[in-house]
Every structure is written in C-alpha cells, then in structure tokens.
Write a structure and sequence with these properties.
There is one protein chain. It contains six helices and ten strands, in the order E-E-E-H-H-E-H-E-E-H-E-H-E-H-E-E. The chain is of the alpha/beta class. The chain has a domain of about 150 residues: Rossmann fold, CATH 3.40.50.150. A six-stranded mixed sheet has the order 5-4-6-7-10-9, sandwiched between helices. A four-stranded antiparallel sheet has the order 1-2-3-8, with no helix packed on it. A hairpin with a 6-residue loop joins strand 2 and strand 3. Helix 2 packs across helix 3. The longest helix has 15 residues. It starts with 10 loop residues before the first strand and ends with a strand. Bound molecules: zinc ion. The site of zinc ion (ZN) has 8 residues, from loops. Zinc ion binds next to loops.
Length: about 210
C-alpha cells in the first residue's frame, strides 16, 4: 500500500497483541492502521460521547492552556481563528476569545454548521483530530485553503515513537477511533509537499505550520 501522505511504498507489520495490521512509511514516518478497521464517522459518535470534556473542567482548561501557551508564543497575534474538530466542547474557542481573538468552531458531529466556505482565518487550531482522519493530507490541504497568507495552522496529535518495540505498546493506538499516526517528520514532509513551512514543534504532540 502507498503512503497517504507522500505516496511512497509502505511496509506492512502486525501488532500481535492487538491482532491488527499497520503500514509504516520509512520516508515520512507516517503509520496507519489497515483500512478494514476504519469506521464511518457516525459509528464513532458513541465513543466520542464518552469523552469527558465539560467546559468547567479545570483539568481540561489547563490542558488547552498548555497548547495555547505554546502556539500563541510562536504566532503574530491573530485577529481571528477557527477551532476545527472541536468535539462537543467549545472551551478552546472560548479561551481564544478570552485572548481577544475572534474564534469560530466546527465539528462534523456536534457543531456541523460552523463553517463558512468563504471565510479565511489567521489561525486554525485542531487538537486531537488528525489521528482520526482517513485522509489527513486532504484535510490538511483544505485547512491551508482556509488560512490567510502568512496564517498559521496548529495541530495537536501525539507523535509516535517510530520504533517497533515501543510502538507495539503505545497507548495511543488502543483507541479504536485512532487510525493514523504522525511524527514531526511526517508534518515536515507534508508541509514541504503543500508549500508551507513547519515553524516549530514541542517534541511531543504539537506542530505549528505557517502558510506562505
Ligand atoms: Zn510517507
């Protein structure tokens, strides 16, 4: 199977414990589960409904604060922003509003009417979304189109260890709705392919990309 990111051939491997097939691209380090386990988005809702993310949850606020502290230190103050794939909660959008940034939010399951096709943004944030996507490159490109030139795309998704042993025991693959996995290198390759620039990463789960 070819890599969905860079189109190079991939190598198949089996996680024996999970009895699940994966594909690894040695060019861009992208890993994805065999497509037979991908579910339609509506079948995933049950799982998402279990996510505990109430707006008044202090832990959740602290979690987003770490994300925003990293991202906002790297970008020129945006006038407006979009939270793409916010889930049930609009907390991250509210926190951006508190920073004086006009923020829209969109989620295909919980807030499907939040996208204006013609509107452009200075900043798009997307946390814990990309690991769920069957076609991350297409979504990445569509988000770049929604950015003003010089705008930023900030993505949070856990980077995989890129070593077989640790990968086999990595907790992040155990969620059945997590189907594709990235490293910083994957986002470097993707950024080069899409003529944008990876500005920085936190070595763990956040990349910030700038549109030319
Ligand atoms: Zn690749």
């Amino acid at each position: 199977m070819r890599c969905n990111i860079c189109d190079e051939p991939t190598m198949m491997f089996m996680n024996e414990k999970q009895q699940m097939l994966y594909y690894h691209c040695s060019n861009c380090e992208y890993i994805f589960k065999h497509p037979s386990v991908y579910k339609e988005i509506n079948d995933q809702k049950e799982r998402y409904d279990l996510h505990e993310n109430e707006d008044d949850n202090e832990g959740y606020r602290a979690y987003f604060k770490r994300f925003l502290d990293f991202v906002l230190s790297l970008v020129q103050k945006p006038k407006n922003a979009l939270d793409f794939g916010c889930g049930k909660s609009t907390l991250l959008a509210s926190m951006l509003q508190e920073e004086g940034i006009d923020c829209d939010y969109y989620d295909p399951l919980y807030h499907p009417d939040g996208l204006d096709e013609d509107k452009k943004y200075d900043l798009i944030v997307s946390t814990e979304v990309f690991e769920h996507l069957q076609q991350p490159k297409e979504v990445f490109e569509s988000l770049l189109k929604r950015l003003n030139s010089g705008g930023y795309l900030a993505i949070q998704t856990e980077f995989h260890p890129n070593e077989m042993g640790p990968f086999m025991h990595w907790y992040y693959t155990q969620d059945p709705t997590h189907i594709v996995f990235f490293t910083v290198e994957t986002f470097e390759v993707l950024s080069t392919l899409c003529q944008c620039r990876l500005v920085d990463d936190n070595g763990k789960n956040i990349v910030v990309i700038k549109k030319k």
